[in-house]
Amino acid sequence: MLKKTLLLTSGLLIIFLSSTLTRIDRTPYKALDFYKKSIHEINQLLTKNPSRSIGDTLLIGFARANLTPSELAPLAGYGNRRPKEMTSVHDSIYVSTTVINNGKNKIAIVSADLLIIPPEVTALLKEKLFNTGWSVPEVFLSATHTHSSLGGWAPGLVGNMIAGTTMPSTLNLSPIKS
């Protein structure tokens, strides 16, 4: 019986390995079809719309603001977390921004040490960008998706479960001076 079990297990292992293992493709990526096709499509876009081309100057700027609340606040991330409110500050919470301008196009990449970017922040961004020379597609919002950061920004039962009790002061999310 033991021999049959070992033989069957060995046979299944050999079948599994032979069907899942493959040779490593060491072809340089520039020689692969997907790369050639991608470069061709990029060149086509630049040819069809020269306004998308690169300018003669590259400007890059960085900024960082501290979002750490001055008082204890709910934590976001786990519905069954105990305690649901921070007890002290171990690490500060930041929002970091990188702005890149090539003379023709500009983008802003905004990354916050939060579980998600709250919908209220996205709505506020749309409102604040009006008449600034920036548009929503030029701003990329991202959260580090930390489960140990500021909560209290999502009203309702489910919001309370994932982001803690709603607090009007956290909905503000204004950076503090550090």
Plain-language structure description:
The chain has a domain at 55-172. 33% of the residues lie in helices and 18% in strands. It has 5 helices and 6 strands, in the order H-H-E-E-E-E-H-E-E-H-H. A 4-stranded mixed beta sheet has the order 1-3-4-5, with no helix packed on it. The protein is flat and about 70 Å long.
What is the tally of beta strands?
6
The secondary structure category is alpha+beta
The major beta sheet can be summarized as: 4 strands, mixed
Strand neighbour order, sheet with most strands: 1-3-4-5
Strand content: 15-25%
Give the helix proportion (percent range).
25-40%
Measured between the Cα atoms of the first and last residue, the distance is 71 Å
The whole-angstrom Rg is 25 Å
Topology order in helix (H) and strand (E) letters:
HHEEEEHEEHH
Count of DSSP-assigned helices = 5
The pLDDT mean sits at 82
Low-confidence stretches: 174-178
Which term fits the overall shape? Answer: flat
List its traits:
two-stranded antiparallel ribbon; about 35% helix; flat; disordered C terminus
Write the layout of secondary structure elements.
Layout: H1 2-20, H2 33-48, E1 59-66, E2 75-76, E3 94-101, E4 106-112, H3 119-129, E5 139-143, E6 149-150, H4 157-163, H5 168-172
Parallel strand pairs: 4-5
Antiparallel strand pairs: 1-3, 2-6, 3-4
